[in-house]
Amino acid sequence: MEEKLSVLLVDQDLMTASVMKQFIVAVPGFYVAGISTSLPHICVTLQKNQIDLVVFEPLGLAENIAEVVGRIHRISPMTAFIVVSSKADQFSVRQALSLGALDYVLKPFSFERFRRALYICQDRKKLLSTLPKICMQNTIDEVIVAQRERLFF
Fold first, then answer.
1. DSSP secondary structure string, 72-121?
2. Cβ contacts of residue 45 below 8 Å, gap of 6+?
3. Which long-range contacts (CB under 8 A, 24 or more apart) does 104-111 make?
4. pTM value?
5. Which residues are bridge partners to 5 per DSSP?
6. Helix (H, G, I), strand (E, B) or coil at 134
7. CA dihedral 74, 77, 79, 80 (to 10 degrees)
8. Which of 30, 35, 54, 124 could form a disulfide with 81 if both were Cys (CB 3.0 to 4.6 A apart)?
9. What is d(CA 145, CA 66) in angstroms, rounded to the nearest whole number?
10. Edge-to-edge strand order for the sheet containing 5-10?
């Protein structure tokens, strides 16, 4: 049986968080480990639980996206993140992707689009799990090429 990926949802709007939770439980291989509405709560949750993916809306948080991502990665460096936002400006998208977001999903979003974002995370985790303990350059190159190919499906 395949391991399920744990997801932490972060959104000030509990209705949106509820919709995302319903979407996540409808996708095989994922479960919601918690819902947070603030950076301190995100940090506590990450310290107490192994979280594979943080899905967050940066608008409701007092901190900027760089601070949120920095705190997530200081506590849990291997945790991936997806930004879900109504901000469609170039700066916000570029910033999120530059900081390592696996995806940037614009609100309002469809189930299919949200599911695709989750599958990007699942595919990446599977791909990275294929790395041997000691990597040769060709193995690293294959993983990088495979990761890029999966982004442009």
1. HHHH-TT-EEEEEES---HHHHHHHHHTT-SEEEESS--HHHHHHHHHHH
2. 8, 33, 34, 36, 51
3. 107/16, 107/57, 109/84, 111/23, 111/26
4. 0.90
5. 30
6. coil
7. 100
8. 54
9. 27
10. 30-36, 5-10, 53-56, 80-85, 103-106
Q: pLDDT truncated to tens, each residue of the chain (153 aa)?
A: 568 999 999 998 888 899 999 999 999 999 999 999 888 999 999 999 999 999 999 877 777 889 999 999 999 999 999 999 999 999 999 999 999 999 999 999 999 999 999 999 999 898 888 889 999 999 989 888 887 776 655
3-class SS of residue 32:
strand
CB-side exposure of 8: number of CA atoms within 13 Å? 24
Inter-residue contact 6 to 33 (CB < 8 Å): yes
> What is the phi/psi pair of residue 64, to 5°?
-85, 170
d(CA 110, CA 129): 29
Rounded Cα distance between 81 and 53, Å, is 5
> CA-to-CA distance for 12 and 84, rounded, in angstroms?
12
Length of the chain: 153
- Copy the structure tokens of residue 52: 């594979």
Q: Cα–Cα distance between 125 and 107 in angstroms, integer?
A: 25
